[in-house]
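README, section 4: Worked example with a bound small molecule

Sections 1 through 3 covered apo chains. Here we extend the same pipeline to holo records, where the ligand is supplied as SMILES alongside the sequence. The molecule in this example is magnesium ion. Nothing else about the input changes; the structure line simply encodes the ligand pose together with the chain.
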Amino acid sequence: MIALLDLDGTLTGRAAGFAAWARSFAAEWSLGDDDLRWLHRLDRTAGGREQFFDALSRRLPHTGTPERLWHDYRVRMPELTPAFPGVLAHLRTLRASGWRLVVVTNGRSQTQVGKLRRTGIADVVHGWCVSEDVGVRKPDPAIFAAALALAGGSDRTAAWMVGDDPAADVVGGHAAGLRTHWVSHGLAWPESEVRPDAVSASPAQALAALAG
Ligand SMILES: [Mg+2]
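The generated complex, written as structure tokens:
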């Protein structure tokens, strides 16, 4: 039994990590509530980190250049991003009952591996595939193939892809021949062509469902 596991929003709480970063950034620069609210709004609307830090540096130039701000963010995020409640315990249970566990995640290696180590997930899983290392991003089937090889399995139909991103994790995993488990966080499934094989509202529930 193999489980390929997304990281951000599936094993670790990106939103909680961002909120912690925003609080510490606001404290460091003595920002008021207006600026803190603006940071959270920008996080939802910026599109990507590059745009986020461009906009931040334009509004608050004294805090640094976009490059400097992004660099500092990457250094700090791993220590601020928590695992979701129950995730570590469920991963240990799955591993103890024979599951092979590999994290497959889009992002920078330093950031993602930092999160894995800091949260303790690195000690429980058998390995990880980070897009920066592999050279392709989800939903490219090649990253799922690399993760599957790392897990030591060749039978895709016996492997699950667990993730919160409909396109990258579920549609991508399905196209790669995997069974898919969507962590919905209470949202409605947005796609019409492909449906996940299983849905759970929370990461802990998804991992518990795998354990059966
Ligand atoms: Mg995710």
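What to look for in the output: The longest strand covers residues 100-105. The chain has two domains: 2-13+83-211, 14-80.

Section 5 describes how to batch many such records.
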